[in-house]
Amino acid sequence: MGACPTLMIILASSLFLVLPNLEVIDAVGCTGRYFNGRYGQNRQNLFSTLAEKVVAKGGFYNASLGESPNRVQALALCARGYERQACMSCVEKATKDIIQHCQQRSSFTWQQDDKDDVSCLVSSSNHSTFGNLELIPAIGSPSPLSLKYESSKNITLFEQEWNAMANRTIKAAAEAEKSVLKYYSAVKAEFTEYENVYMLMQCTPDIASHDCKTCLEECVALFKKWYWGRQGGEVNLPSCFFRWDLYPFHGAFGNLTRVPAPPRPPVQEKERCIAGRKIGDGGIIAIVVVFTFINLVVFVGFIKVHARRRKSHNISSGSAAYSDSDGQSMLRFDLGMLLTATNEFACENKLGQGGFGTVYKGTLFNGKEVAVKRLTKGSGQGDIEFKNEVSLLTRLQHRNLVKLLGFCNEGDEVILVYEFVPNSSLDSFIFDDEKRSLLTWELRYRIIEGIARGLVYLHEDSQLKIIHRDLKLSNILLDAEMNPKVADFGTARLFDTDVTRAETKRIAGTRGYMAPEYLNHGQISAKSDVYGFGVMLLEIISGERNKRFEGEGLAAFAWKRWVEGKPEIIIDPFLMEHPRNEIIKLIQIGLLCVQENATKRPTMSSVITWLGNETIIVPLPNAPAFTGSLSQFESATIAMNEDVFTELSCR
């Protein structure tokens, strides 16, 4: 059912709509400036294929169309358990409602139809909302019926039970990350006053878990502020959806296990019993004084003991301060604590595995999540690589470098403890057809720029000068906000600040990402990392693995298309609707980075300059290395580290 267009417009504040029932919800939230005809046409063109695309991409789709300032970003989502045709119909109806009711640059609607058992989201904006928490505008719809209680004293009890259910549902939704359609929870519970209460929550899958929790908490708070006392209702925000009622309004409730009602709180009495005897308020005061004194004595004693222990051992984190030969402070973790944190390195906690070891997710005693890298015995990363990684990472602090928290080397166990980066490695997105659709051009551009900034810090801005030597997408981790972090410094090389190039007899790295002068002659410099960055950049743009182009490699393939005047051939189909000239510019930068002559390759600071300035003319590239067969260098002696952070399936 439609709503008056004037009621749909939201400027600086939130709008809530009162509808006669909740069977079909089609309210639209609008905000921002009014647009001209070109923006409206771009939005309509983008909306025309949205229903088909969201079904084809597994229930979630993000895209854009047009050039700034008339560029339109759109996002569509169908709730878990959708049927193909119902999802398409829902999205089509949502786009029509937005076009009909909203003439502003930002808009969204959560459609819900209980008859077709489907709910969906469509949003549009002139700026990228992907990966960002959006809390404005807000739309609400209450039930027209009021809650009825058996007695007045049960009003408080109902609210307690309702709050507990809401908190439980928020927690379940924010922690649900088993598929692309994550952040979803449907709960059915028994209440004292009512036989069943149903609650449904969902966030868009592109935001971080803590943002999902924030969004749902805001929905619940708004419902209680606006509609408390109503017999059901919902609140919608651009990033999340919340609804509850006294009947199963969605098919997801069909197979849920009923949660029993919480126990009634104990009856409060003026007199309390201790050891079977009733005492009055005066007795309670005396007992409180005695217990307070005892607790104070115990607390003082505990503080003294705890102060002594902290000198040698940090209880809250299971770690102790340690200094290396250069006086660098780091944390030495207790093995027993790491065994507890990872549930004794349980399979379900595995994050990835490679030639040097296995990475597990762990939770410390203080609740902090960490990534625990347990090195494999005889893996090739022995004392040298272990000490190298510990020594380097304890001195490096940059938002685009993974942070080393400490280490453990007890008995035959050699372990590194890192900050936990929840979105795994970049290759798990780029080379996955389902996840790659989540990476818009804006997000890929931000990731490319973040990697480049991390390398500038390593090469030029830190107190040390470090060459990574094993740059590849599996060594780029993504945090909760999809910010890239360069990882795995086991093969990195430390340079004196006034040294620009060196030679090594031990070649370490991954085939296809190593510069020719390094692979063939052992010559290592910052330009070696630039080469690896160029290969990664081309992989991010194309969505294809470098080794897929057997016989020549991605760089040589891209170069041939560049010479032919057809560089767009390598562009990922998911990016074809994005600004072509901007993408081709980055292909050009990638080809500059993989030139055979190392002196012709740019520095990473030059790459940052090109990325941040649209007016600077980027030089034309020369031919890359290895335009012939990859077999030319397959026989080289390489300390291989092919899949350091590959996704696992536990058995």
UniProtKB/TrEMBL annotation:
PROSITE patterns: GNK2, PROTEIN_KINASE_ATP, PROTEIN_KINASE_DOM, PROTEIN_KINASE_ST
Membrane topology: Single-pass membrane protein
Origin superkingdom: Eukaryota
Signal peptide extent: 1-27
Pfam families: PK_Tyr_Ser-Thr, Stress-antifung
SUPFAM superfamilies tied to this protein: Protein kinase-like (PK-like)
Residues annotated as domain Gnk2-homologous: 21-129, 140-249
Transmembrane regions: 282-303
Protein kinase domain sequence ranges: 345-616
PANTHER family, per database record: CYSTEINE-RICH RECEPTOR-LIKE PROTEIN KINASE 40-RELATED (PTHR27002:SF1008), RECEPTOR-LIKE SERINE/THREONINE-PROTEIN KINASE SD1-8 (PTHR27002)
Protein name: Cysteine-rich receptor-like protein kinase 39
UniProt organism field: Camelina sativa
Primary gene name: LOC104716953
